[in-house]
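Reminder to self: tokens first, then the designed residues, so the page reads top to bottom the way the pipeline ran.
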């Protein structure tokens, strides 16, 4: 794992990707820091972090798109998979390299509240709590981007898919409000999700039978549950979407709340998508 980590980290800084990522994050943070905190004389650094959290939509797809997709495109993944190293160590090594690149600007941001404290009172608990939430938020999105990179050989496709999925995650609150709360509307929505789920399983396993079976079985389960008690489907899809409001979880930190639920949520999302990435590469190794 250490060798994979060092190789990946060296790649980010030998191709300027890491430098550009860090510089862009600090540039955006500096802009909002100047506007909210310096110009408006506000001690609330969490407002600046909240504003720049939307840059994850751009920087996460760009940073993660080549993590595994590039290995597949250049056929170097065959050499990687032939190493006497477990798939889990390969994925974790790649993820830790991504996380290191992301951690560097976050650590630098930790000094910004200290600068503000020279000119007024800063609520350190709220400020550094929001920085922790920002870090966990970004870490979970990096895990999602890494998984998406593992299911395709094209960096462009990986970047577009990642951007689309993150955009959906950011927009989940608005989407849930647009969906009717009727039982039939929830049934239709779950049907669409079953199809998408089958496609994701196919992309992960590269097995049409497995993907088709997964989609059919999940749809059959939805229909059976609907026939048993359709009243439970009223507003159920909106409730499910609430579980995917990944950006909303971060709002508690900026409001001054140390939300243990949000911490567990982000750690769980990170672990889940790292596991998905491991399973995706394991399928490639056995093939």
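Designed residues (287 positions):
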């Amino acid at each position: 794992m250490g060798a994979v980590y060092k190789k990946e980290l060296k790649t980010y800084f030998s191709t300027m990707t890491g430098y550009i990522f860090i510089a862009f994050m600090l540039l955006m943070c500096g802009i909002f820091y100047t506007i909210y905190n310096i110009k408006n004389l506000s001690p609330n650094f969490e407002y600046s972090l909240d504003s720049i959290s939307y840059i994850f939509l751009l920087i996460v797809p760009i940073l993660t798109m080549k993590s595994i997709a590039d290995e597949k495109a250049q056929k170097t993944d065959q050499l990687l998979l032939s190493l006497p190293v477990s798939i889990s160590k390969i994925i974790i090594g790649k993820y830790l390299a991504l996380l290191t690149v992301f951690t560097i600007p976050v650590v630098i941001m930790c000094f910004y509240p200290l600068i503000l404290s020279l000119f007024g009172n800063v609520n350190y608990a709220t400020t550094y709590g929001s920085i922790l939430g920002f870090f966990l938020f970004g870490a979970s999105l990096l895990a999602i981007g890494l998984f998406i990179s593992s299911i395709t050989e094209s960096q462009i496709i990986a970047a577009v898919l990642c951007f689309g999925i993150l955009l959906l995650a950011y927009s989940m609150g608005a989407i849930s409000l647009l969906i009717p709360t009727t039982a039939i509307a929830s049934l239709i929505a779950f049907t669409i999700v079953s199809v998408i789920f089958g496609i994701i399983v196919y992309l992960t396993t590269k097995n049409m039978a497995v993907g088709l079976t997964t989609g059919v079985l999940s749809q059959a389960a939805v229909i059976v549950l609907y026939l048993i008690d359709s009243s439970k489907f009223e507003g159920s899809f909106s409730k499910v979407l609430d579980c995917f409001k990944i950006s909303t979880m971060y709002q508690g930190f900026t409001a001054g709340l140390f939300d243990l639920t949000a911490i567990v949520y982000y750690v769980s999302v990170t672990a889940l998508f790292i596991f998905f990435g491991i399973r995706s590469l394991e399928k490639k190794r056995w093939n």
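Residues 182-234 form one domain.
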